[in-house]
Amino acid sequence: MIKIAMIEDDAELANVLTQYLAKYNIQITNYEDPFLALSAIALNPYDLIILDLTLPGMDGLEVCKKLLLKHNIPIIISSARSDITDKVIALELGADDYLPKPYDPRELEVRIKTILRRCSKELELLKPEAKKELFVLDEKKQEIYKDTKFIKFTPAEYEIMSLMCKRKGFVVSRYDILQNCSFVNTNEESGTLAVIINRIRAKIEQDPKNPKYFLTIRGSGYKLAE
Questions:
Q1: Which residues contact 219 (CB under 8 A, 6 or more apart)?
Q2: Helix/strand/coil for 211
Q3: What integer pLDDT is reported at residue 185 of this predicted model?
Q4: Predicted pLDDT of residue 226
Q5: Which tens digits make up the pLDDT trace of 11-53?
Q6: How many C-alpha atoms does 210 have within 13 Å on its Cβ side?
Q7: What is the mean pLDDT of the chain?
Q8: Which three-class secondary structure string do you get for 3-48?
Q9: Which of 62, 82, 161, 210 is the most buried (most CB within 10 A)?
Q10: What was the pLDDT predicted at 206?
């Protein structure tokens, strides 16, 4: 449901538009008083505002200015005022569209959906792009991927790399690794911790002697970076 605040002192026109737009899943709440409208909009979320310029107590352009100072809501000016200056000022203030009266309600419906579609695309562009993780751990399958490619590890290597993935970006001490990785202690063929880590580096690093991802933090332990 699209929710729209209309600020229109012509109750008959507001009623006609409300009934027509309801057929297109657009809910209109009309405010004949601009002061009441400003208070209501501050308390209730709306997707768009339809604003008349000739209003009791406050000019529509002033209402437009107040709305745009406090809210990031698209505004369609709906006015019988034919002066091009009003149109220019409204658009310069930041109104999204100017629809001169009289008009067909079908045109208003199309303009509402066009503006909301455009605003939705703009919001998508402003969203920060999700960071793609280089190392992905699938605990159910007991598999680890680097850049979507499966890497085959021995049980001891998997235990260590799994722990590092879970604590990615943080320093993991040698003691923590030995406490959490049973294969490192029980499997004599696995070799020492340093040997196992060197084998891991050989599988995930381009230059194992100068690691970029599996880092040694002198005096503290190890860290998996991306």
A1: none
A2: coil
A3: 62
A4: 79
A5: 999 999 999 999 999 999 999 999 999 999 999 999 999 999 9
A6: 2
A7: 90
A8: EEEEECCCHHHHHHHHHHHHCCCEEEEEECCHHHHHHHHHHCCCCE
A9: 161
A10: 94
Report which secondary-structure segment, H or E, holds 86: helix 84-93
Closest CA to 216 of 183, 181, 171: 171
Contact 78, 54 (CB under 8 A): no
State mean pLDDT over 116-131.
70
Threshold 0.70, pTM exceeds? no
Round the CA-based radius of gyration of the chain to a whole number and report it.
31
Q: Do residues 29 and 45 make contact, with C-beta atoms less than 8 angstroms apart?
A: no
The β-bridge relationship of strands 2-7 and 48-51 is parallel
Asked whether the predicted pLDDT for residue 187 surpasses 60, the reply is no
The confidence score (pLDDT) of residue 119 equals 82
First to last CA, the chain: 43
The pairs formed by 203-206 with CB atoms below 8 angstroms and a separation of 24 or more are 203/151, 203/152, 203/153, 203/157, 204/135, 204/146, 204/151, 204/161
Three-class SS state of 126: helix
- Distances from the Cα of 180 to the Cαs of 13, 57, 136, 184, in angstroms? 72, 72, 19, 9
Q: Which of 50, 55, 53, 54 is nearest to 29 (CA)?
A: 50
Vertex 144: Cα angle to 141 and 146 (nearest 5): 145
Q: Is the dihedral of CA 70, 74, 80, 83 positive or negative?
A: positive
